[in-house]
Write a structure and sequence with these properties.
Chain lengths: ~140, ~140
DNA sequence: ACATGTTGGTAAAGGAAGTTTACCTTGGCG
DNA sequence: CGCCAAGGTAAACTTCCTTTACCAACATGT
């Protein structure tokens, strides 16, 4: 078994679970592309261009995501007071609740993994993945 | 840092690297959706429906991927002699070369990870991920 | 034997989501 | 003041998946 599949399959499973649980929790408008926004760290106070780069999509694509989330009441775009044409994305109360819910779901997933693998093995796994994260391997 | 991002980011990095290296190696037609075909184990001798289920997409979507790969000369679909309406996907020489190249790229990635983390830590990481793979967590 | 259902495969139309192209606004700078 | 770069937005296009529909080859019941 090669490292590609070993990482990809669990990552996909977590992704599906997050979306499913979010929908079940009442955030029924949230779908796959919206997750580009809610990835850590959240979009609160950021500018659209920064969010686009972070998510690895074009500014235009990010703008479509932002517009749909704004329509659905998850965030709002306001003018940045000091910096020219720049705008700022702010989560609404509903957006903040969705973000907190994602965090809760991930906590629950981590708990299940810790039970399944044992807390020690799960801790080792996270430690190793953090070393990968901090290495040049993922650049 | 939560487990979702820790798995997702390296998995995406590997995915981008595979496609980039494949294109650089002369397989310029291969793009994201084509990877659904070349995931382990390869498509050689399989039927379209099985490939669709394995990739998690509909039979129709898989059929479009197969057609584009057939047009590009990576595989061919032939009638299965014994089993009724069933058809069989066969890699051409070019398709087999692409598959082998993917394998080489993954081997190279694993080598780089082993150097970066140390062989022992990398072995531990794979062992832990295999335990996840075999658990009900990813179902 | 033959009508019917099931399985496997394919094709066309529709929709979701990202990119390319183009444009507007703001502020910096000669 | 005129020009240009940066940031943001919008429209058109492309890609790719799903929905819907259809066809062919068995299997089965009567």
């Amino acid at each position: 078994m090669l490292i590609g599949a070993l990482l990809r399959v669990p990552a996909q499973a977590i992704h599906r679970r997050i979306i499913g649980d979010l929908n079940a929790a009442g955030f029924t408008e949230l779908r796959v592309p919206h997750m580009a926004i809610f990835q850590y760290p959240g979009p609160d106070g950021e500018r659209p261009g920064v969010l686009a780069e972070r998510a690895g999509i074009s500014k235009q694509a990010m703008n479509q995501v932002l517009r749909s989330l704004e329509t659905a009441g998850y965030l709002e775009r306001s003018d940045a007071p000091d910096h020219g044409r720049a705008r700022i994305v702010r989560l609404t109360r509903r957006g903040a609740m969705a973000y907190a819910t994602i965090h809760d779901i991930l906590r629950d997933i981590e708990h299940q993994w810790a039970v399944e693998l044992g807390p020690r093995a799960f801790g080792n796994l996270k430690t190793l993945l953090i070393r990968v994260w901090e290495s040049p391997l993922v650049r």
